[in-house]
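Dig into this one:

. . .
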Amino acid sequence: MPKSRIRKKADFTPPSASAKQATSIKLTNRSWVAPVMLALFLIGLAWIVLFYVTEGDLPIKSLGNWNIVAGFGFIAAGFGVSTQWK
């Protein structure tokens, strides 16, 4: 059976300093994320609690039980905003 050829790999040479291109990293100020996230959580919680405490009269009587969905919608929006937090 014939032997396979041994191939020598070229040694790694890092690129020269002149070949490097400066990449600018744009860091945005995301100080708004935490307050908005917490506000949405609290609004959603308050919406649901208000609905139960007033036995369906508030926040919007015409929505009926859909007020619960609206409250959880605010909470879900808070989780959506939390994905922007770095």
